[in-house]
Amino acid sequence: MADPIAETAAPSPDGWEPRIIAFLCYWCSYTGADNAGTARLKYPHNVHIVRLMCSGRIDPELVTTAFARGADGVMVCGCHIGDCHYISGNHKTMARMPLLRRTLEAFGIEPGRFVFEWVSAAEGEKFARLVRDTVAGVRALGPLDWPGRLRARGVGHGRDLQPWGAQP
Amino acid sequence: MNAVSKAKVAMYWAGSCGGCDISLLEIGPHLLELVAAADVVFWPCAADFKYHHVASYPDGYIDLCLFNGSVRNSEQERMARLLRQKSKTLVAYGACAISGGIPALANLATPEELFARSYTDCPSVDNPGGVLPRTETESLVGELEIPHFYPQVLRLSDIVEVDYLIPGCPPQATRVWEVCQAFLGGALPARAHEQLAGCTDKSVCDECTLEKRLVKISGFRRHHEAIPEPGWCLLEQGFVCLGAATRSGCGALCTKVNMPCRGCYGPSGEARDQGAAFIGALGSLLNAELEARAGELIDQIVDPAGTFYRFTMSDGDLKGHR
Amino acid sequence: MNDAASGARIGVFICHCGGNISDVVDVKRVAEEVGKLPGVVLSTTHMFICSDPGQALVESVIKEHALDRVIVAACSPTLHQMTFRRAIERAGLNQFLFEHVNVREQVSWVTEDPVGATAKATRLVSAAVHRARHLVALDKRRIAIQPAALVIGGGVAGLVAARDLAQRGMKVTLVENRPFLGGRMAQLETVFPTGEKARDLLAPLIEEVVSHKLITVMTNAQVVNSEGVVGDFRTRIRVTPRGVNERLAYRGNAIAACPEETVNEFDFGLSKRKAIYMAYPGCWPPMPAIDWHTCTKCGKCVWAVGGKGIELDAEPREVEVRAGVIVLATGYDPYEPLYGEYGYGIFPRVITLQQLIRYLDPEGPTGGQLPLDGASKPRIGFIYCVGARQIEGVNQRQPDGKVKDYCARTCCTGALHAALTIKDHHPDATIYNLYQDVRTYGRGHEAYYERASESGALFLRFDPRHPPRVEKNPRGDSPVVVQVQDLLTDRLDVELPLDLLVLATGVVPHDISELVGMYRCAVGYDSFLLEVHPKLRPVELAVSGVFLAGCCQGPMDITEAAGAASAAASKAAALIAQGQVEMDPFTARVNEALCTGCQTCLGVCPYTAITRDPVKRIANVNQALCTGCGTCAAACPSKAIEQAGFTDAQVLSEVYALLADRSGAVTA
């Protein structure tokens, strides 16, 4: 059997590694991620978890900020619908994230860079698989480098602007 | 301010529609008070000053410069830098100068797409040769150069330090006059860092009188598709109204006439990214118990990015298409 | 965003976890890198920070260096966040000036590449340092606990837990989803290691429970949903009508009159029962129940008893049970072999250990007779570890895609116990035990192995990678023949014609997926419920106020299940006895200057904690009702609501730090 980790963890030739921020609710998805750890399931090291009490706290601005600050991908995970520790916090997530996804797509952020999935406390395996798939997907898409893109287009004080067409 | 010599004021339009200039005229009789107290030293819309006049002023000569419009080409950038150099106080006047405004909706397309649409693909364009604008061209009077086009629409603050921001598309005349009075009365410190003026800390909902019935949204409609029920919150009726996510100061003019707020005063409170803040709010208000139903409702929103960032594309976190 | 404590004095402690972390993550390197960050006064590592010396170190360093922020990078916060919060509180610091970084479950245990793991750990810890600068002191909230417990499951573990809780003076509701109490234990005949009759042990326990004034027992009762948190769980329970009431006098007549028959699950399919039935003689409640899936409501039973005591048209009812704590005692199911696994399902003479026990029961389907087709010197084989200790690639995967790789713990002794019982009834029987390892681990269990050996039972050890094969006997002198390679005789190929083959089947958790969702239970890879910590908090779920009793947590024998139940009861009682629970202070607060009264948040709160102040025309959060999810903070378009402990400044600082090397100097 081919080792999925070895495949996804192989660094790119230029040394670039996907940097992914994952916003997780504490009760289901974070515990699910712990569960993956307890079961010693292996996944690549690119995903960095930010813990919130409920996926309902995941403000869309956290996601746009992460991309704007240079994340190559963002994951948002919460309890399955019906399983929310706070009854219905995730119902808001269920509406906000698809709305955000459509908006991000208009900005040219590929769907594979914004992963929104339900992960229960029991779904350590699902979490590990999700991380592997997300990292592989983002790796295939390559660097996003939003800060570099903005710099190149003159966002920020006193930049030496290059006219359109003069850029390589 | 020197009591002997009159204050010097300037207004300039960069990437703008002219509405901001009109809004300054809209202060009406107060205009006479303004010119009585201050000399207009540059205002292309209203007075015949040229570039070389401005260039000849000493640095800091202009006390208050109201700069409207966004920056998308080399001429606009040059004027922004020049006016910053010549002005004690530089104000980003109106949504375009502050956050890109309507012109920055073009950030969702590439320059190639914009040129193709404007000069070849548009059904009303007759351009069999496919001629596109060039920055240099030979003419009867010799070689001409027109401004360079930049890859995306920028805010004034992307180019130079900005002291004040007067939001709105356009800023409301009463608010503008308040700021002018503060300036003339010496209550406006010359230097500040992107400080808001001519608006409040609250959102449009604070000034809007429509009734909230606390019902969830069961379907979205655009304002040409249905007539809203008078007196009832437009968002609750399914019209995408950005009032809750928009800072106030306008007096809720649009919702007074049953038009949904389009967000021209920019993000409210401490929100940075107006679009993201509105998504957070709107996603909380859908009448959907199931994921599929939420998806159906969301699909009814036409052009979410353009709608949520209608006036703040250059100011949000992402600022435009990749 | 202002730096809430730019002069912060931060201490960072990175745990080796005895190698669990430091074998993969270069913890010294992480400490060194993080130590360079502004505000970090001290950055060090320790072998076990959760140990007493580790905690003492944290406490002394806080005092010595006048730290005002503490970061511990160790295991998951679900495990030791409280330990460290208490430690820093002992050192005189507010416990919420603490950040817990998870570098074990989410780094060392999941990462193979040590370089990547160290880099990730460094980023996570430095994010915590940035976040810590924005922390402020917070006070815990306290919530009163309902002095009542809900025990789910009426098997031996549930019964013991209910009894123990009631003995401590707690009000208990015991719900059992089947119509009769007793669970799996009632299906056993005699039990190891005492040889007592299972149902004789069960009867006084059931009597004690059902007659206790503080205990309410509901049978035929299913948990529909649950709301609330520790201290006040509100659980909706649907009670399916029994169809029979106390007025039923001639239950024998009613049962005899019933024309509908179905498979008797109590005998594992070895017998049939009627639609109106009693589970076993002496069961509780001592009256029949109607199985509505089988009943056609023909009315023959009603007619047979003269209309008294049977209600065919009773409707299910729902009740709400309020309880401060929940004990889950949902038990196990025997492993059901796959079709064809060791001939199961193909050959009628291949049966499971559970079926054998039913055969051996004098009150069982055959009155204690084995299905030997009159064989005079019966040859009976046992295959051990069926549906247990399976090997990926050797054993067929289960429908859930996994193999059952854990030891089911009860089947070795259970099978030997059954083998000895057979020997008692059939002294001339030959018993073959085909095993991987004999794990008679408990007190008195080994005696069964010794007695079986002395009784002449034969032991053949197979290599689990080459399990025995069960085939039709081509000579026809027995129903099946087993081929096995015996490791004890240097891999001699042995062929055993057998009259009866018993599969010593393992244990799988009873399907409680709905409860798992409702109570947000952690589930292990083996699908059993997962305790917070196997040694330190062995009967608690990570969800506060929910406790584990018995086989829902893993394979146990009755002794262990009863022990776990008593432990769960005592933990639950201790919690109730506190009278109140402390709650995290992560509640939402409204910034009155920014709130514009847009009312977006009013409909967002699941607990209706947010109301509108009609005078100020702004939102107001009731701190007692707020549970601290933060959903309203994400909804507020003006950022006028902040969730304590998860403010925008705190969360964003973490995001910024995780991307510090990516951002460049772009202004947001």
Describe this structure in words.
The complex is a heterotrimer of chains A (168), B (322) and C (668). With 168 residues, chain A is an alpha/beta fold. Chain A is 42% helix and 14% strand. Chain A has one domain (17-142): 3-Layer(aba) Sandwich (Rossmann fold), CATH 3.40.50. Chain A has helices spanning 4-9, 26-38, 60-68, 89-106, 124-141, 146-152, and strands at residues 20-25, 47-52, 73-78, 114-118. The model of chain A is unreliable at 1-11 (pLDDT under 50). Helices cover 30% and strands 15% of the residues of chain B. Chain B contains 13 helices and ten strands. With 668 residues, chain C is α/β, with parallel strands linked by helices. The mean pLDDT of chain C is 93. In chain C, strand 22 and strand 23 (480-486) form a beta hairpin. In chain C, the strands form eleven sheets. Chain C has a five-stranded parallel β-sheet with strand order 8-7-6-16-27, covered by helices on one side. In chain C, strands 18-25-19-20-21 form a five-stranded parallel β-sheet. A four-stranded parallel β-sheet of chain C has the order 2-1-3-4, sandwiched between helices. In chain C, helix 1 runs parallel beside helix 5, helix 2 crosses helix 3 and helix 10 packs parallel to helix 11. Chain C starts with 9 loop residues before the first strand and ends in a 5-residue tail after the last helix. Classes of the chains: A alpha/beta (168), B alpha/beta (322), C alpha/beta (668). At the A-C interface, helix 2, strand 2, helix 3, helix 4 and helix 5 of A face helix 4, helix 5, helix 13, helix 15 and helix 16 of C.
